[in-house]
Structure to design on (679 residues):
């Protein structure tokens, strides 16, 4: 039997403040957490949702170094962008704070000190890479070298992003410091470790026996780690950005980001509720739920619980409903490759359409396996579901009520068998949705809400009140009363998923009550209630809008290819004598025309300083003929003539092929006389 709790504490993974947030973050963590929290609030339960930016760690220092600014400049910039994006998408945090705050530094420091004083850490001295030029130890991300597996020359000390293999810095071939470019040396350094192996027996029972109800992907990953055996994990590192290690002899060391970041949940709760925070973290009647992505499972199910258990006074998570990853158009979302749909850009391109994205990301949520976001699916779900089903039904119910009853809720008369059958179809919606929502199956819960709209749509289509209006207004009144009651149910059912649209619908229906407990009732709107004017809840998205988004991604892909382009290998060496036989000269283009029936060829008349010559060149796809007239170009003057399409070509114009395949004719930078030799 499931335990009944007095309150719920919802936490969401802290996004790194080294870039904006994208749809993968939204689908994996923040929309599910918001749906769950809004649902509990609608039920009148005591729930708070805690979030914040993770502002420590190497990715932030790397970005700061690349831009030549302090880490604080970076985190201030992105914390504000992230916070604003969440607010605009309706992610209803009770607090969204940050780990660079004073309260967080103190909370994390005190937490470390308590574990230190209890003897929960072990001290170990080990050899790590040190940059003698920069005079600092190097975190894994500060070391770049050749991957021993795929031979990518830009692999990091913790992972090769080309083949995805996890690495140790010492695995790299020819390691270099990312700071100075010099070859690092090994040097001894002391750090503190949390002995996870000490907590292995407790974790095995707590997870593998007591939490078999956890999602299979979460349970499976935890079991895999536990089966391999846990090892001590460093809680400090040599870095100058973060929470300083609060013990003597730890100068120049900070708390490892994996250790300080989850304490951010505690410090943010303290900031929100300075007098009541312990009620949410230390009372056994509080249900703690962590919403995260699959890359954070180990930290939230094994490492953080081990920290809390070692401290001794905190509750442990009741559930960690981690999602898998969302891909984008068949490719893994990547911040470094700019392969993402960024939330702040989406809001610029689709103003007022937050709920469309929330709907699509929930309907396609990666709850049990990685899923794919495509712009075509986004358009189809908007046009075929939100517009054609939900929006269409609500609009018809309201417009017809305004047309026939001056916008007042009509009286409900005697119900036909078909009316009763329709009502019976949605009496179980509340129980179904509750079961799904409480077991973190948000995709299925959304389907149930949309089924309610489908029931309403079918009801209006089958009863055809616009035809009955000619003969039986009492029957029309009953039909529209039921249609409006279904609409009111939709305003409640969709509130956790589509908060902006639900609010708009409630305003149209002049609903005074927003309470989950009345879901399934058929008397939510009283007879005679004056409705507000009908407005469209959703609008169709045109092909041209989607094509623009697809083109934006194609442009990104092309830019990435150009960025990663490697020049073709150098051909076999030739002797200087062979090279000296080439006579390369400068000529001025006097005339240039397309060669008939040849897509690639242009015919040039060149002033070569010796009376002129004709050259045929295959660059017609890269230049308009008129753009070349008057240019000075380089050409090989002593190439044996050859016929192309019946025209004798007396030389070859030199071009460079760019990474994207474009040909660019070689021109001297300054004006020179035709016939000048290239030396």
């Amino acid at each position: 039997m499931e335990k009944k709790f007095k309150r719920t504490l919802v936490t969401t993974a802290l996004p790194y403040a080294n870039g904006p947030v994208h749809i993968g973050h939204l689908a994996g963590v923040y929309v599910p957490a918001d749906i769950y929290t809004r649902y509990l609030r609608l039920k009148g339960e005591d729930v708070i949702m805690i979030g914040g930016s993770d502002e420590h760690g190497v990715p932030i220092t790397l970005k700061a170094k690349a831009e030549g600014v302090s880490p604080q400049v970076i985190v201030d910039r992105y914390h504000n962008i992230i916070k604003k994006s969440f607010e605009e998408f309706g992610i209803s945090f009770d607090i969204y704070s940050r780990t660079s705050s004073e309260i967080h530094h103190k909370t994390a420091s005190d937490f470390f000190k308590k574990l230190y004083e209890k003897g929960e850490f072990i001290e170990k001295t080990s050899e790590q890479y040190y940059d003698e030029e920069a005079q600092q130890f190097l975190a894994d991300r500060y070391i770049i070298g050749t991957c021993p597996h795929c031979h990518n020359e830009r692999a990091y000390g913790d992972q090769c992003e080309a083949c995805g293999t996890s690495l140790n810095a010492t695995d790299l071939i020819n390691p270099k410091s990312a700071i100075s470019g010099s070859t690092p040396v090994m040097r001894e350094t002391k750090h503190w470790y949390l002995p996870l192996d000490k907590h292995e027996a407790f974790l095995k029972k707590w997870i593998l026996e007591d939490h078999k109800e956890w999602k299979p992907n979460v349970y499976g990953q935890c079991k895999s780690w536990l089966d391999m055996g846990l090892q001590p994990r460093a809680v400090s590192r040599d870095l100058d950005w973060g929470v300083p290690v609060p013990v003597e002899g730890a100068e120049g060391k900070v708390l490892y980001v994996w250790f300080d970041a989850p304490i951010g949940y505690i410090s943010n709760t303290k900031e929100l509720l300075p007098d009541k925070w312990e009620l949410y973290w230390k009372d056994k009647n509080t249900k703690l739920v962590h919403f995260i992505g699959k890359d954070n499972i180990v930290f939230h199910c094994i490492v953080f619980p081990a920290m809390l258990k070692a401290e001794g006074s905190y509750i442990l998570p009741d559930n960690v409903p981690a999602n898998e990853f969302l891909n984008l158009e068949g490719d893994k979302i990547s911040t470094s490759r700019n392969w993402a749909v960024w939330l702040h850009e989406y809001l610029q391109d689709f103003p007022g359409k937050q709920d469309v994205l929330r709907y699509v990301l929930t309907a396609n949520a990666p709850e049990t396996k990685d899923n794919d976001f495509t712009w075509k699916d986004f358009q189809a779900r908007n046009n075929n579901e939100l517009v054609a089903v939900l929006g269409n039904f609500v609009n018809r119910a309201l417009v017809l009520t305004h047309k026939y009853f001056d916008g007042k809720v009509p009286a409900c008369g005697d119900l036909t068998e078909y009316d009763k059958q329709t009502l019976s179809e949605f009496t179980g919606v509340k129980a179904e949705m509750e079961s799904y929502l409480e077991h973190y199956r948000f995709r299925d819960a959304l389907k149930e809400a949309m089924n309610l709209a489908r029931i309403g749509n079918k009801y209006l289509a089958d009863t055809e009140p616009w035809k009955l209006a000619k003969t039986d207004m009492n029957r029309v009144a009953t039909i529209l009363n039921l249609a409006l009651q279904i609409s009111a149910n939709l305003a409640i059912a969709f509130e956790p998923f589509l908060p902006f649209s639900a609010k708009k619908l409630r305003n149209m229906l002049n609903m005074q009550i927003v309470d989950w407990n009345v879901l399934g009732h058929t008397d939510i709107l009283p007879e005679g209630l004056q409705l507000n004017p009908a407005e469209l809840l959703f609008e169709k998205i045109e092909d041209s809008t989607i094509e623009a988004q697809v083109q934006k991604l194609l442009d990104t892909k092309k830019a990435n290819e150009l960025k990663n382009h490697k020049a073709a290998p150098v051909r076999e060496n030739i002797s200087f004598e062979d090279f000296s036989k080439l006579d390369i000269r400068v000529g001025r283009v006097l005339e240039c025309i397309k060669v008939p029936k040849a897509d690639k060829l242009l015919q040039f008349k060149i002033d070569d300083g010796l009376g002129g010559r004709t050259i045929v060149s295959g660059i017609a796809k890269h230049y308009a003929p008129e753009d070349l007239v008057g240019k000075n170009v380089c050409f090989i003057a002593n190439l044996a003539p050859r016929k192309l399409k019946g025209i004798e070509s007396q030389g070859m114009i030199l071009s460079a092929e760019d990474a994207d395949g474009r040909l660019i004719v070689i021109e001297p930078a300054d004006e020179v006389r035709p016939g000048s030799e290239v030396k």
